[in-house]
């Protein structure tokens, strides 16, 4: 099977696999005995290394179980903190965010949180001027959130403009950088954001490991409580080994970022050029964009059928983000771009993708498109 769904998760790096296989057992890093302190040293070393990659201070790196937890902690924690301070303002949210954001916001909305939705253009790029207006219209907002880059289409978002607007309005900004990490430069201190979510499984680290970067002056209420670890923001026994493997993957991703971005961009350009030559195929792509995602839509076909046919031909592809527990649903991102009744196809490449993989995919794509249309 040739994997063209690296945006969902990419394979663990060989160096991470070796480090995992060779790792010695670690005690609870909160324990005061010698073994516990050895584990604590591994944990804090990993936190410092992650902070260096992310352009943050080590005390700002709160380790979590992944991107979804990080996003939930950021949004619920920020809104709860504002509410408890007597300032229960609105959440400002673009309509084409990842479901981890949309579902967390929907939960808060059911608890009484007001939400101001912001639209996107035909390429899933958030309207920065609309965000700026939403931050202040109807009263001050409590928190704003946005992707660094669309996880489905790949378009980079106007982070600088939104961060400037949020700073002027005095509203904390959360960035979902889960899909952008390892593909574009990320320096938290330079973004102007108060919070930023990242995850390990997108860059060749272990699954179930992530982090929320929390600026030291940010107000945040914890999701759950216990031993008070990590500034009281994320209680629970910390995964020292997982953090260490995440740090290793992040360091390697940063070291190879420029060269790998150029290689993957060349491959995705090859896909986009060939796909555009197929009748009834439209490219849903804009510049600037992530280098590893080629997104297109097929008219007159069903997304599930196209995905199944390519899977049968030996290609693992996606018609959206892998965020709905395996349940197929129409892409809310494509719909937000103004398109309905089309088959979306997200082809996302990674460090194991070769030119031969791309040529094989392009050889199979026209027939899969034709068969998918015939099945409709």
From TrEMBL:
Reactions catalysed according to its record: (sulfur carrier)-H + L-cysteine = (sulfur carrier)-SH + L-alanine
Pfam families xref list: Aminotran_5
UniProt keyword Metal-binding present: yes
GO molecular function: cysteine desulfurase activity; iron-sulfur cluster binding; metal ion binding
Domain Aminotransferase class V residues, every copy: 4-361
Co-factor requirement: pyridoxal 5'-phosphate
Alphabetized UniProt keyword annotations: Iron, Iron-sulfur, Metal-binding, Pyridoxal phosphate, Transferase
Keyword Iron part of the UniProt annotation: yes
Coiled-coil intervals: none
Sequence similarity: Belongs to the class-V pyridoxal-phosphate-dependent aminotransferase family. NifS/IscS subfamily.
Protein name, UniProt field: Cysteine desulfurase
Species: Agrococcus sediminis
């Amino acid at each position: 099977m040739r994997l063209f769904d690296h945006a969902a998760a990419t394979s663990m790096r060989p160096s991470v696999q070796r480090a995992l296989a060779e790792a010695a057992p670690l005690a609870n890093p909160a324990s005061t005995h010698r073994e516990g302190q050895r584990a604590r040293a591994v944990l804090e070393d990993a936190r410092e290394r992650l902070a260096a990659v992310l352009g943050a201070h080590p005390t700002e790196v709160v380790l979590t179980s992944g991107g979804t937890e990080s996003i939930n902690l950021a949004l619920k924690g920020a809104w709860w903190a504002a509410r408890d301070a007597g300032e229960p303002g609105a959440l400002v949210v673009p309509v084409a965010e990842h479901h981890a954001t949309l579902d967390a916001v929907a939960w808060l909305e059911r608890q009484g949180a007001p939400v101001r939705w912001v639209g996107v253009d035909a390429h899933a790029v958030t309207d920065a001027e609309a965000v700026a207006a939403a931050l202040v219209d109807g009263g001050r907002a409590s928190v704003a959130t946005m992707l660094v880059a669309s996880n489905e289409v790949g378009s980079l978002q106007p982070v600088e403009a939104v961060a400037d607007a949020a700073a002027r309005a005095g509203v904390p900004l959360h960035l979902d950088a889960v899909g952008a990490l390892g593909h574009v430069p990320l320096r938290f201190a330079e973004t102007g954001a108060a919070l930023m979510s990242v995850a390990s499984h997108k860059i060749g680290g272990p699954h179930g490991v992530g982090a929320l970067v929390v600026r030291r002056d940010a107000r945040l209420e914890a999701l759950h409580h216990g031993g008070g670890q990590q500034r009281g923001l994320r209680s629970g026994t910390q995964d020292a080994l997982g953090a260490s493997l995440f740090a290793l993957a992040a360091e390697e991703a940063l070291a190879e970022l420029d060269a790998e971005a150029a290689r993957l961009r060349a491959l995705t350009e090859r896909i986009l050029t060939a796909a555009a030559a197929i009748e009834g195929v439209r490219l849903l792509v804009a510049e600037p964009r992530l280098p590893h995602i080629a997104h297109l839509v097929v008219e007159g076909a069903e997304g599930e059928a196209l995905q199944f046919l390519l899977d049968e031909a030996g290609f693992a592809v996606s018609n959206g983000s892998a965020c709905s527990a395996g349940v197929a649903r129409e892409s809310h991102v494509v719909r937000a771009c103004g398109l309905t009744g089309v088959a979306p196809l997200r082809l996302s490449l990674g460090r194991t993708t070769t030119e031969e993989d791309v040529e094989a995919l392009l050889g199979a794509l026209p027939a899969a498109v034709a068969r998918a249309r015939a099945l409709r």
